[in-house]
């Protein structure tokens, strides 16, 4: 039975739910396998334009399951260090996988997001958290580096290097209000409202051109690595001209003139 549920509550929206509530959705290798499969499914579904990632029960994701991580499906038959490297890469690729799918992904942080759970949230495109949520990099407390699952890349880009260093070196917990203040989450909502708030945001995104929305995600991530301002502008320029060939901008102009919502192509 899968430890990740994929549901489509409304046209154009997929909700991906980590479903190990008894362990606060901790990352076992089975859950990692199932999440990769779920992201493949959503990414290949052209009817889905926005995805939401959340956790079942009272937690988002409590990080690596230290009580029974079990063998990895990708490292069977390999001895250390090759097996360990293969398993580590499989877990760590969840962040880039979230980035690779064309749909914007909204993290609905419904409870604790520790270690790998925080890394997953940081790899999403938007984050909404409930007021009681607690977050932590955490890994540094476990005798390993705090730099895991891409968080040393994503976190400084979201909140700045100085704050990221402090959180990663100390491993301290912080709450949703502080996360919003530092710019890590876009919105704090009452407990139990994370998914509803994420769906509300998803509906806003659905009102925009499908291709324009996908290109906004792609160019934003690409330009985080742009070597210069001019490189970033050149990529934007080419994307705008490419989008212009779709006819969406003509439809947007007509809809504005006629006082109606645009009717986008697929």
Automatic annotation (TrEMBL):
Cited SUPFAM superfamilies: ClpP/crotonase
Domain of life: Bacteria
Organism name: Streptodolium elevatio
UniProt name for this protein: Enoyl-CoA hydratase-related protein
Pfam families reported for this sequence: ECH_1
Family: Belongs to the enoyl-CoA hydratase/isomerase family.
Range of residues in the leader sequence: none
